[in-house]
Amino acid sequence: MAPRRVAALAVCLLAMAAGAAAANECSSKQGFLTMELFSATGTGATSSELAKCLSSVKVTLDTHCNVDLESLSSGGAFIPSIFTDSSLAGDTYKQFKECPSTSAATVSAGTNPIASTDVTATGTFTDALLTQLKKFAYQGARDTAGLANIQILNGIVTVQDKQSGPTVVYKYAIKEATMTVPGVPSVPGGGVATPTGTDMVANTEYFANANIGQTCAAGRYGLVVKPPSGASIKVCFLCPVGTYGDGNGCTAVSAGKASDTVGATQDPVATCAAGTYAQGGNSDCLPCPAGSFSAAGAGQCTDCPAGSYSWIPGSAACYKCINGVPTCMAGSDGGSTCTNNNDEPSPGYHVLSVSQLNWPANLAAPYKPDIYAKCSSWASTPTLQLALEVAGDCSITIRPITDTSCSDPGAVSGQQIIGQAAGTTYQYTYNDLIIRAYYQTSTAIRTQLPTDGATTVKSFMMAIDKPTPAEYSASTYTGNELKLRFWGATDDVAASDLTSDVATNKVTAIGGTVVGLPASAIDGTNCPDGTYASDDDNYCTACPQGHYCAAGVMTPCDADYANPLLGAKASGACTQCSASLSPRFTSLPGAGYCTVKYFERNCQTDGTYWDESSMQCEDCPAGTFRAGNDANNLECRSCDPGTYSKAKAGSCTACPAGQYSPSYGLADQSTANEPRLHCLRCPVGSVALTAAEALPAKFIVDNSVLTATDDYRNDKALPGGATVCMACPDGTFADKTKTAKAPTVTGTAPNEVYANTATSCTLCPTGTYRIGDASPMNNKCNPIPAGYKAKTLLVGTTAIGAGATELVCTSNDADKAKCKGAFEIEACGKGTVSSWNAGFIERTPGAPTTCKSCTNNEYAPRPGMAKCLACRGGTKPATSNGAGGPDYCTPCDAGYFRGALTATQAGSYKAADGSADSKDFCTQCPMNSYATRIGATGCIDCPRGTETQDEGNTECTACAVGYYKRTGGRTSCIEAEAGTFVNTTGAFTTTPCPVGTFTDKAGQDSCDPCPAGQYANTRGSQSCKTCPAGTISIGQAATCKSCTAGFYAPAGSGICSPCKPGTFADAARSGSCKRCPKGKQCPTPAMKVPQDCPAGTFAAKDGSSLCTPCPVNFFQASRGQTKCTPCAPNYNTRGQTGQRACSLVRVTGLRRSQL
Q: Where is the signal peptide (predicted)?
């Protein structure tokens, strides 16, 4: 090898050796020492972070000269993890974290840490140890206050706040050391290096060898140690936090109690407050996590009962909200024990008004909420209201409303404002203004620090409280005023900007009830402006975008107007969409923003409208109309009842006389075969009328005038525009041949009246009558039957009855023309008769209201006779009191006689067989038979549809309404069977009830409609069937309609009801709703398909309206689950609920007694 190369290799080897020596500077000095606290003096020293977390500690020096600490305490020591100004600690919920077990990072002790004899010099082992002691509790995030000086001397490590005249001093005795440290005796090769008693208080902190059998003072425990040289001594160490000592040893504090100082002398008397717990050996009482509660002195927390919640750590009770008002379910609320109940939780909406709030200058961001910074009216003359949406689990979403500067829920800072000029942007994000809060008690609402992953958080805390009795007594608060406060809090241990400032504001409950005020909720009947009443009037809801709300009523903005704000109080909040923007946008009614692309929708041509699908003007369909260029009516409107239209109509046309339209939107009915039938045709027996003309069909007996100008029953010339069909009443009929009086209807061709359609009712002619509403089978005026007369008439000028003096009906032609419209008949009285000649051309007598008295030795023995009977030989006619003529025969007076009958009279007969019975008299025709001529030898059976009421008739009378006779014969008319009806006289058959109707009685002239919830799908029904479950009918139904999915109906229902939250119906025709299955939620009415529970939630039972967040230290990563999974060892959820995953945490051992 060349000499030059050998030299270079030597240089490299020397450099490597030097580097290795530097890297292992402490390889010969490495080791550890253990030390325990035996003295802590000065204000707060016994409960400081150092005393709590490091009462027993192991210090390690590694080969690289780095110093590490390890706590040898057995756990149970806790330090705060949420911070606020000390004056506000009582209003801020508490959170703790356990003391760490090791230091967060090593600290270098320099290149030669042991060589220095100056135990306070920088860069030495002692300097590194002091640094670690400062940073240990909060892992470097903040130095422990009051640690500024350290020295190691005579086996004692002294830490104090200053080198000269210290006020806080901690002293540790070194129990063991395997390295050489100035002031620390050591045994070569390692071993115990203990203090000798120098710098220790005799008989308190140690006992010399002569007194080694003495017991240490209470709060301490003794340990005998032997220095490297000299006699053994007993060191009296302080019992760590979470324990107490009797001088011989330390005992863990009982469960339900805590001790946060070292050197405690007894088990504490005081117990943990309600809402906190201690499992035993705790330095502090820990707040119960969300979802649990505790009574005072609890060793552990109790999970809230199913359906109840606690959100704020440290809760003494669990609640559920009904209509948004908290009900205590378990624990204690305001000193009262809570009782579980089975009421379902339900949300509610409540409203607060605010007063002017002057914000403290020192309470700045991030402790100042955006809602105050952005809602500008709060600082001056507030228009702001706070809408509280309280869920069934008593969580609260607080939104600003009514303040125009901060109530647009679509606002995102920096984004373009919809409907305004380009470059106009939002100055706030609405979601940043929303405050999430929770009921802590029934009279207190609180917020929590928001979570932000692993980073520290600074935020405001908010409280809404019911004022105290003292505040009421001092008139600080009155009526429904509440106390709203803001202050600062953080989980940043190093924060230095916390102040004692509090922003306090009076707010007033003006809708619903908040923290118990008012005691009786302001419900939907008294909603403040800016809110509207819920469907059940239980609460007041913030007026949504696109609407304004006054006096509890929500009104949508008109089309081409929009309102982006929540809580608008008046119509002025709806502003018209700008016509100057390009492109131009408009809106539909009830819009929050103008987002509909604008087209000129005011079509100019009659009968056209703007169609959104084709984006052009289209023809209005038949039955609708629209005038061109009508800016107030852009859509085709349905024709009113009484009118019709063809397609593309600019207006609707009145129905011609004799036709009608009963509803909106009738299309022209004309066809090639019936060009003049524009509206609907009334059935035979009815006429088309307007609503004003449709007088009730009743007898007029009060001399009311019935002229052609004011009553449709007297051939009135009726105009068009009819909306109903009215059956001609008694005494009239619909004469389809009389159309001449119908005037020409505006908008129709002359004489455009549908042929063969009656346009008015006509009085029945003289000598005829008609009873009941006219119908296709009962639209004929029949001759008044022989033996009867008209009881009441509708005449051309006056209604008269029998015996009326206003008008006398005689056989004179002039009088007979007036005697019309008989609608009620009665039998001729005894002694009188009435009859018709052949063909019913002439009635005797001529006046229809009268009957003729018997004459010429004849008599009428019973009412309703058509012909008088001749008295037998030897008798003469006589008249009874009250009879209208002779009604019986009496023997001739002495000296007088009459001959026998020589021939039969009508209605009787004489047998032709010459039998003895036929020699002297005629026999009356039996019932339901008749004889029309004189000299009859037999009687004729009554034809079908007719009968007689007695014997001796010359004709048969028509069966009455509700009765029929199917075939001719000597049988009477019978009642129409149940399920059928007869609405005319003279019927020989019945009509089955149409579908949708029924009758369960015989002898009916009409059928009843099936009620809602029932149907009749066959003709002739005697009863209606009940609609099966899942179907409905609204009345007179032939079939039942199925409910759609999301709705249900029990059997016999008239309406489909929406499924309630917590239930669903996934198929049509549901008779009931199913309970939402486990793992799913049904949050709204009319649910068709349940929703999977989101990750982080679960539903353990059927019928959940909302899934439950996973409790603290449980998680669920999947959707649709029925339970949550507990966090694995060494993992937790950092005290949060509703988590999808757990986070890794440090695990410490259990505390052990130290003797």
A: 1-22
